[in-house]
Amino acid sequence: MPDSLAMQTPGKAAQYWELCKPGVVALIVFTAVVGMFLAVPGWPPLGALLGGTVGIALAAASAAAINHLLDRRIDAVMARTRHRPLPSGQLGQKQVLVFALTLGAVSMGVLVTLVNVLTAVLTFASLIAYAVVYTVWLKRATPQNIVIGGAAGAAPPVLGWTAVTGTVDPHALLLFLIIFVWTPPHFWALAIHRKEDYAAVDIPMLPVTHGAQFTRWHIFFYTILLVIVTTMPYLTGMSGLVYLAGVSVLNAGFLWYAWMLLKAQDDQVPMQTFSYSILYLMLLFAFLLIDQYLVRQVLV
Prior knowledge:
mainly alpha; flat
C-alpha cells in the first residue's frame, strides 16, 4: 500500500501542476515582474517584489484551474484539450475546485498582508474576469471574445506596478495596452489552426464564424496596430533607444509572419505565428527591462 501511494503521488502532483498552466503563468509572472522593475528607480522593495510575485502567480494558477473546471465538457471534445486532468478522469471536480479556491485564497492573503490592498483587489478582479466572465459567458457570446477578454490577460504589468507603488500609473496602462493589442493576433493564429475544434463545441471564435481568411486580415491589421502601440514607450520617454531598436526588430518579424499568414495557405504558418507571438512578448518585455534597468540606471 505505501509503495502504491508513493507511485501515485508524483502523478497527481503532475496533474495539479498541469491545472496551473505553468507556461501561461510564467509569462504572466514575467510581465508582472518587469512592471515592478519599471515602476521605481533602482531595485524594487524586496517585500513587494517577492510578495507580489508569489501572490500574482498563485492567482494566475487559481484562474487557470477554475478555467479547467468550467471548461471540462468542451475540453473532453477538443483534440487539443481532451487529455487534460479533468476530461481524462485523472482528477475529480471536487479536487480541482478545492485546489483552485485554496490557491486563490492564499493569493489574496499574500497580497493583502505582504503587498497592498489595491493590488489584491485588482488581482481578484482579473481572476474573476478571466476565470468566470470570459470562460463562462464571453467565450460563448461573441466572436470578439478574445478582444474583450484580453483585458484580463493584459493586467499583470499593472498588478506588478501597483505592487511596488500602490498606484496605477499611465505608464503601467501603456504596458496593459501593449498586451491588450497583442492578444488578438496571438490567439487568433491558434484559433485558425484549431478551427475545427472550436466549431465542434460551438465556440464562436472568429475563424469559425467569419472564416480563416477574414481572421487572417484581422491579424494583419492588429499587428499594424501593435507596431504603433509598442513604439509608444519610446515616444513617451518611458524607454530609450535600446528598447526601440529591439522592438523594431521584433515588429518586423511579427509583420512578416502576419503577411505570410495572409498570403500563404500552409497549415504550419498559423502555429508558427502563434509560437513567434509568445517569443515576441517575452523579448519585448525583456528589452523594456534591459533598457530601463541595465542601460539607463546601471550604465548611465
